[in-house]
Specification:
The structure is a single chain. The protein folds into 2 domains: about 5-185 and about 350-415, 3-Layer(aba) Sandwich (D-Maltodextrin-Binding Protein, domain 2), CATH 3.40.190; about 185-345 and about 425-465, Periplasmic binding protein-like II (D-Maltodextrin-Binding Protein, domain 2, 3-Layer(aba) Sandwich). The strands form 4 sheets. The protein has a 5-stranded mixed beta sheet. The protein has a 5-stranded mixed beta sheet with strand order 8-9-12-7-13. It is built from 18 helices and 14 strands. With about 475 residues, it is of the alpha+beta class. The longest helix is centred in the C-terminal third of the chain and has 19 residues, at about 445-465. Helix 10 crosses helix 11, helix 10 (about 240-250) crosses helix 17 (about 430-440) and helix 17 (about 430-440) packs antiparallel against helix 18 (about 445-465). The chain is globular and about 70 Å long. It has helices at about 5-10, 15, 85-90, 110-115, 130-135, 140-145, 160-165, 190-200, 210-220, 240-250, 270-285, 315-325, 360-370, 375-385, 400, 405-415, 430-440, 445-465, and strands at about 55-60, 70, 80, 95-105, 125, 180, 185-190, 220, 230-235, 255-260, 265, 310-315, 330-335, 350-355.
Amino acid sequence: MLSLKRSFLLLSFALLVAAVLVGCSSNDGASNNVSEGNNNPESEGSGGEGEWEGQSISVQLIGDFTMEASTDPITGEKTKGLEVLKEEFESQHPGATVEFIIMPWEGYTEKTQAMITSGEADVYQMPGIADFAAQGVVEPLQSYIEEDDEFDLDKFIDKQVDGWKALGPDSDELQIYGLPFLGDARFITYDKQLFDEWGVEYLSDYPTMEEVAEKAKQMTGKNPVTGEQNYGIWFRGDWSSAFTLINLAEGQNGRWGTGFAWDEIEFEFDSPEMVSGLEWLLEMQEYAPEGLVSDQGNEKWLTQDNNIGIVLNQGPGDTIMPAYAQGLGDRIGIAQEFKNDENQGGMFAGSPITMAKDSENKELAWEWMKFATSDVMQQYVFEEANAMPSIKSVKTWDSYAEVENLMAPTLEAMSTPWTPRYPWASSQPRFILTSEVEAALTGKRSAQEAVEKAQKESTEWLENRN
């Protein structure tokens, strides 16, 4: 079982990962962890003599990273800071200096744009890689990969490399502009104790919409053991509802549309599979607590008093660490999101790392990118920063074994999402579709009317953009 230290730290996990795809809670204190010197790649570092003498790189990171060790206010135990990685990297690269720029999640896209425009860093953590690759401001990596005999893409969890492929300003084929750094996934979670109390068989590893619907119905009402009101299902009807609906279409062998470059994209938001998926959500609303469209009704989820059987579209930050911290690691189960006949489905998420096109020390920047995806830093990410690693060797770590019950299906989910990442995931079409799902859930429009309106407005937005 987890140590006391990890149990409490896990609660912070949701603040770091969930949204890596589309945004996260702010942590205004994060940037304060970097001293003035650490914001300047020319600042005095540990450098010295050696093969890399005089070379310095600056690395931008997003989230709850800290430079120095910090003390957990509850346990009194120490959490290692980035200083241990700085020391390790510089010891492996004599004469080199690495400095860090840490920014909070709030406004990270605009801040990254400003940084890369002014050439402030050599390496960036970049969830919005597709937009930056199209600008021609990040370095294509294929030549570095091919020329480096020590580097092997097979070390990454399946789908992680393909998920971050993007188009450059003058290319018509997807290329590697970033390496997987922080992993993420989406899956279905369920409460085994409620299933047992209702006498319902657990969800299968790859449930269908029909299976989820049937079991949600069976667990809605007065719990036969506790007498408390239970609800069979819960899902967000706001922020992530567009992705939930797209996944329902994928589970019926549908899709969001086609294309990757904006001038080639064609949406299929009004397809029969989308209509059927939204109608399914409207039906499931009958077996859910009130408040879906305002992210309410799930207040007891991941507590000993939980009253919900199944929760859709969850991620590691929503589930793994909070579950173990609450002593529910064996009570919560994970099933995969809906997949098509090719075992593909669900939103790809996480954060890659990229190299700035204008970096003056690209060879050293490449060395850092390899280091950032090595066991040394990936284990740090998992154990100290409470984020998901992106490499297969995670399965060999003792820290993985402590949470394997929920980590194993999470890694499975990371290996089967829709790739490459939805190109519109952080753009206006996502918000248009979300708004129409909300309209349907609140009775303002039928499922058919909602998806037709989403299709029309998204297509018009795309035409104006192009």
